[in-house]
Amino acid sequence: xxxxxxxxRGLTALGQFPISFGLxxxxxxxxxxxxxxxxxxxxxxxxxxxxxxxxIAAFAVEAYRAKHALEWRSPFTxxxxxxxxxxxxxxxxxxxxxxxxxxxxxxxxEPIAFYFVLGHVTQNAWRARVILGGLAxxxxxxxxxxxxxxxxxxxxxxxxxxxxxxxxxxxxxxxVALYLVPLIGIAASLFLYDRxxxxxxxxxxxxxxxxxxxxxxxxxxxYFALAVIALILAVVNRYRWYLLPAVVVLGVAMSRVxxxxxxxxxxFNLSDPNNTFVSRLNLWEATLRMLKDRPIFGSGLFxxxxxxxxxxGGVYEENLIYPHNFVLNMWTETGLLxxxxxxxxxxxxxxxxxxxxxSGPQSWRAIQLGIVLAMVAIVIHGxxxxxxxxxDLALEFWTFLGLAWAGTRAAKAEVG
Length: 416
Known about the structure:
Layout: H1 7-11, H2 18-29, E1 37-40, E2 43-46, H3 47-65, H4 77-93, H5 97-121, H6 125-155, H7 173-193, H8 199-217, H9 220-236, H10 240-255, H11 258-268, H12 276-293, H13 304-307, H14 326-359, H15 362-382, H16 391-415
Antiparallel strand pairs: 1-2
């Protein structure tokens, strides 16, 4: 199999899995549409779930009709299987079995099945860019919608910088940054290194939209993740000795923008009631006290809010459903087994995608570097937030892994 680098040649490669590939792109664009919900009898569902299931069904039919031999082995197969086992155990451990089962379906089973489909239908770099374009399209809609609401608050002088800004579609402004910043890492890599002329202007357009929306979200975790991405991009560039000082100067300048400076100032005043870092420390302290009593299995899926109650003890006052740190999130929700599996997945993604960037097919290199940057964003922002346990974030995470796997398959085919 040859790796396609030309869009027009890529169009001729639509012969295999054309329906499931098209549905996969549409599903990625519908990631924020998980907020559109309904019930089928007693079972809840979402527009995003319907799109995922339709994509999986289409792939099953196309693979069966083509008598396509499925490839089960991948760099992520074993940790994904361990993750599924840990999730199943966590449903049994959870005090809310039915709701825990719903989360297991939405956050583990369906995204992992979607990953498996992507690994097969994304057969060249052109297709990978289309899949990423789907994610970017959905992110642009969510980002623009949220930016309009915040700009409207600014126009009416109702924006309070001591509090989270208003939101639409998502429940919190941090959710906007959690979804957008990993895609900013990929778009930045494509803009700098992709060789197809049509990719760079589209990446620049998305960067303008997503950076503006992230800036307006006032997400401090998002800002920190962006800063780390910018530093990594500067380090890997051959002009690093010029770019590193420029990135530092730009970062300092951005931190002095009045809105950002005011927002950040709350974090440096430990007595400020709007200081979220102190509240995070209290939350983590209570979580660790809980985990000391249940270290193996945690609180189970959908079990944190109930499990943390005896350990609040005047230390933790908020009513959150996750401990807002990706290590503690995974530990409480899926136990030590799930945490180990997730860390394994992260390590494998960094390893596979970094190798793809340094020695993979030329057409895939910018994509693979982008996936590395996306994982960095997930880890950095995940130090103070919940970067996985949401429908769109779980889909985004496994989409990145599916593309990383597709890139390794392309590399093997090129060598073979």
